Amino acid sequence: MQQERRIIIIAAACCAAHANAGLIASYTFDETDSGVPVSIIDSAGPIFSSGGAAGALDLDVDGILGSGVAFDGNDDVAGLGGASSEFKQTGDFTVALWVQLPSLAPNVQDRILDATNSNSGIGGAQGWRLLVNPGGAGNAFTLQLQANGNNQAGNINTTFGSLRDLQSTGGWSFIALRYDIDGEASISVLYDSDAFASAALVSTNTQSVASDGALSYGALAAPRLGANQSGTGGYFSGRMDELRLWNTVLTDAELAAEFNGVIPTPASLPIFVVASVGLAARRRHG
User: What pTM was computed for the model?
Assistant: First the structure.
């Protein structure tokens, strides 16, 4: 058993080193608000020009790792910058985060992250959205990806109906959106109970749709977390944590390592320490 654990740690370390090479933004939501607005700080790469004013958001809640951020489903929204936002990627990218849903189903088309220039349908819009969408009776959910390529004849507007449902029983779900301009857009969903997830498990719980070239963004595209483009609707109900963005398409193995608890750490730490800390953290919250 001890030898097996060493192998897992070494494998996670190797994947983490590769994945972090393309990391350009990371939000841990470990800030505290104490009843006053607090900026949500980016802990990797350039800080967004507008920071990300928390407003009424509760940053003093338990996350998957340390503190998370809570959205009440009524008026909570985090702004993630405007014209210079790192989330307005035109080429390959990966965005991953943890989501915890309440026991009751959210409203239709709750925004997780909206990086479009429109509050309405995707037709004619520019950019992409990641939404939660009720997917049947009870507390079943699906994910919906909407994107618009620069010279696309049509729009990607797909509900991944057979994708693994998001947990709505108090547990955390790991969501990863990967966009390959020359191949496909895919969404992966894992549960916090998937201890030491492998690349094979990531592959099993991934659904894809063909992509169509580089993305473009209109002048109004100001990425929002937990609401629509203007921050006036589509409000998310639940918690989020550990939001990260890469300007590369992560492999299944790299996503498995990310899921297994690899988090930003000082570059001076030896890589085996980085992996050990991450895996220990996952065991505490799993």
Answer: 0.82
